[in-house]
Amino acid sequence: MSGLIRNEDVAYVRENTQIDAVIGEYVQLKHAGGGQKKGLCPFHDEKSPSFNVNTTKGFFHCFGCGAGGDVIAFVMKLDHLSFTEAIERLADKIGYQLQYEESSGPSRPTVNKSRLIAANTAAMEFYCAELNQAGAAQAGREFLQKRGFDKAAAEKFSVGFAPDQWDALYKHLKSAGFTDEEMNTAGLIKEGSRGSYIDRYRNRLIWPVRNISGDVVGFGARKMASDEANPNDQSPKYLNTSETPVYKKSQLLYGLDLAKKEIMNKRQVVVVEGYTDVMAAQLAGVTTAVATCGTAFGDDHIKVIRNLLMDSDAFSGEVIFTFDGDAAGQKAALKAFDDDQKFATQTFVAIAPDGMDPCELRMAQGDQAVRDLVARRIPLFEFAMRVVISKYDLNNPEGRVSALNQVAPLVGKIKDASLRPEYVKSIAGWLGLEIEIVNAAVKKVAGKSHTPLPEAPPSNVNLKDPILLLEREVLKVRLQFPELVLEWNEIEQSAFSYPPYQFIRELIDSNLTTSILDVASAASPEVASLLSELLVEPVRIDGEVSERYVGAIISRIREVALSRQIAELKSTLQRVNPVDEAERYGTLFAEMVAMERLRQEQKVRALGESSV
Ligand SMILES: [Zn+2]
To answer: Which domain does 29 fall in, by range?
Structure first.
């Protein structure tokens, strides 16, 4: 934390900064007479200018959205900076050295942020020049060329090269007047084995990472030496700057400095996976592309983006993720049902054919293909449902019914109830089922999906009942031996008849990242203690827990669940007139037959596998 900037300094910076010059970097301003200038407001969407700057008094005001203030307020609001950061930025611009007052709080680091940014900027310039040198840099140039990036592209993104030497950057920055402490704090050098400083990045292609304001705050660096050529080099393929006073990876988005204005104008942001994907997408005309820097897309990134897409007080705009459709992307998509969903209805997913990333897609099919990829985005909810459905063979009724059982609870989890009927229609279309059947399935689980938990386990329930013992056993093996439970997702939603068990099942299904115990204790102490019980209680088999045993109990629980469902269907069928409602009768009957077949299958498997 910085100390306090002296009041005199704040006043000096404010007085010596041309407000129209600063605002003019973001907004095109036209003279409007009387020391006034006008332009399109950067804080809300508008077609005729209502954003006014009073250049003599040093204030701005927008008559459209009401935003206003002095130059410091403008920089804070536009670039989402703290007051101190805004002053530091403006002071840098006019070349003024700020003085800090001693604060009683945590002491100010001896290295100030503007020196760190200066060191990073000098390093970037050094790396850029190195990319054009003979020798090792050749590999870097070839890497770029192979991915469809010419010299102009490399220059646009200031891609550089760290030479294959121990201390080339260190010597260069030293001669430019930077101290060891400054370079070390910036993460540019590290202590070598002999106690002297060496460069952190060597023989790597370098992408400078800028913050939202365009300051160079760190680097991403890709290893060039192949593992075969250099088996001793165990370093990771990509190195990123570790946390520094100016590099906060949880908030940084690569490419955001270039994309910021476009994101605000188009009210769209496209999140891709890596540095080359950002380059490819932006060069292909997807000018709103950004990527995280060596970390997962998290809450802080959402905040940054939300601020840019905030329209007065409401969030409006689209966030599009390009997933390659792999397991990680699918998990992330399914998690969408668990988050607060504030963001979810504006979240979309774009998947390239053959799982190509934007960089590969651009190489294979050109710029238009990358733009098409983004244009073909689908809503996150739809994507997540299709992921679930894709696991089933829809050519047979069993597959369709199982898919329906898995996907129906997801509809119930959509918080915006007005969206649910749409998804019921879509699911009916994807599965080739009647809308009523999908609707019934959704309604059936909707009541159960937020099973209100009994304060204490119901006293009239006999937990020694063989069916409840079975349910408990299945949960135990799932929790204790997850690697043996291959068919967890096949188990019918109705399989757990005891509400606390059903609750635990939902916890297992919905919390992919957070510790399940944390979630359970947040729900209630009873659930937490039941969960920890299940985690430690011995499995009811002598000897080793085998895949065979697990398969048997899962088949058995499915058989029980299917029997229940069949009984329900039978009773429905009795209420349907086979003549008047022939079509509905036929569908229900077919469904029942399919379930019966599935039940028989499970029964045979349960018996076969348990005859150990
Ligand atoms: Zn405005």
So the answer is: 4-101
Neighbours of ion ligand 1 (CB under 5 A): 41, 43-44, 62, 64-65
User: 372: part of which helix (H) or strand (E)?
Assistant: helix 367-375
Q: Are residues 95 and 117 in the same domain?
A: no
The tally of domains found in the chain comes to 5
| Residue 197 domain flag | yes
> Do residues 504 and 570 share a domain?
yes
pLDDT of residue 520: 67
Residue 62 β-bridge partners: 51
Q: What distance in angstroms lies between residue 172's CA and the mean position of ligand 1's atoms? A: 46
Render pLDDT for 43-100 as a digit per residue (tens, 0 to 9). 887 778 888 888 887 888 888 887 888 899 899 888 777 788 889 889 988 888 888 7
Distance from the alpha carbon of residue 77 to the mean position of ligand 1, in angstroms: 12
Domain contains 247: no
Backbone angles phi, psi at 100, to 5 degrees: -110, 145
pTM value > 0.85: no
Would you tell me how many other CB atoms lie within 10 Å of the CB of residue 511?
A: 15
Of 248, 239, 335, 253, give the one whose Cα is nearest residue 292: 253
Domain-ending residue, one of 449, 474, 494: 449
Residue 344 has pLDDT above 80, yes or no: no
Cα(287) to centroid(ligand 1), Å: 23
Residue 405 has a CB neighbour count (10 Å cut-off) of 21
Res 503 pLDDT > 70: yes
- H or E segment to which residue 570 belongs: helix 547-575
125 and 204 fall within a common domain: yes
Residues 336 and 414 in one domain: no
Distance from residue 114's CA to the centre of ligand 1 (Å): 31
